[in-house]
């Protein structure tokens, strides 16, 4: 038996939010921190952005907290609307498909690994005198690594031929900056995207056609059940 759809638009919105609780809690926290940045003085904004960064300096002083906290801030509050759209299109769909815990595991690992590897790249560049030592304090916050991983996972949600067109677009979006004057952030995006694509075994229907076998009515936090 198919579930009964909510009757009103408000009920449908509420049902969508409940279907991806992790995405919307994360988005709510980012909204709050963006308001804090928008209302802060220039000095306080500078302090917050650097204190919550997962740069080399903060990773050496507060490794665990800097990795966690950096994922809840964005540098430009004006970008919050764009991130809202991306969260709804990418994170919410992936979380609803995989379940909250598999989604969280993938984006969390991608955020941590991409951050550590990209900052290791910065450290090597500093030691090789290709970057100034001030880069140990560079602002490195945001949610883009998690988004890149989720974007990679979303590939398996789409049926062919859309899957291949989408994958080509995603590879182009993250690959072109990487091949043309890449920054440490571009490198981190590439790492996160690769981890998202490598997380295929976590998807419903791994070993067959994941997009065809996936249950669109899977409950958050639990893998879909076979029908």
Description:
- The chain is an all-alpha fold and 227 residues long.
- The chain is built from eleven helices and no strands.
- Helix 2 (21-39) packs antiparallel against helix 6, helix 7 (100-127) packs antiparallel against helix 10 (184-198) and helix 9 packs antiparallel against helix 10 (184-198).
- The termini are close together.
- 33% of the residues are buried.
Protein traits:
227 residues, 11 helices, 65% helix, disordered C terminus
Could you outline the blueprint of secondary structure elements for this entry?
Elements: H1 9-19, H2 21-39, H3 42-51, H4 56-61, H5 63-69, H6 80-98, H7 100-127, H8 144-154, H9 162-179, H10 184-198, H11 210-213
Helix pairs in contact: 2-6, 6-7, 6-8, 7-8, 7-10, 8-10, 9-10
Using the CA coordinates, give the radius of gyration.
Answer: 19 Å
Helix count, DSSP H or I runs of 4 or more residues: 11
Structural class given helices, strands, pairing? mainly alpha
> Could you give a short account of the major beta sheet?
none
**Strand/helix succession:** HHHHHHHHHHH
Query: Residue ranges: pLDDT <50 for 5 or more in a row?
Result: 209-227
Distance between the termini: 10 Å
Strand content: under 5%
The level of helicity is 55-70%
**Shape designation:** globular
Instruction: Name the average pLDDT.
Output: 87
């Amino acid at each position: 038996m198919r579930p009964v759809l909510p009757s009103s638009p408000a009920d449908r919105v509420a049902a969508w939010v409940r279907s991806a609780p992790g995405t919307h809690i994360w988005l709510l926290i980012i909204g709050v921190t963006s308001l804090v940045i928008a209302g802060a003085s220039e000095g306080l904004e500078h302090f917050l952005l650097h204190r919550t960064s997962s740069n080399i300096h903060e990773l050496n002083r507060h490794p665990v907290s800097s990795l966690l906290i950096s994922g809840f801030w964005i540098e430009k509050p004006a970008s919050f609307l764009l991130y809202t759209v991306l969260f709804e299109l990418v994170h919410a769909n992936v979380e609803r498909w995989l379940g909250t815990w598999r989604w969280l595991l993938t984006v969390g690992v991608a955020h941590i690994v991409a951050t550590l590897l990209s900052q290791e790249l910065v450290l090597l560049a500093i030691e090789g005198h290709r970057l100034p030592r001030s880069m140990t304090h560079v602002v490195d916050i945001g949610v883009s690594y998690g988004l890149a991983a989720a974007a990679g996972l979303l590939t398996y949600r789409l049926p062919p031929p859309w899957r291949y067109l989408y994958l080509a677009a995603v590879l182009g979006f993250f690959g072109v900056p990487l091949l043309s004057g890449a920054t440490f952030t571009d490198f981190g995006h590439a790492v996160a995207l690769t981890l998202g694509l490598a997380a295929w075994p976590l998807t419903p229907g791994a070993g067959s056609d994941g997009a065809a076998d996936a249950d669109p009515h899977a409950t958050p936090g639990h893998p879909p059940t076979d029908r």
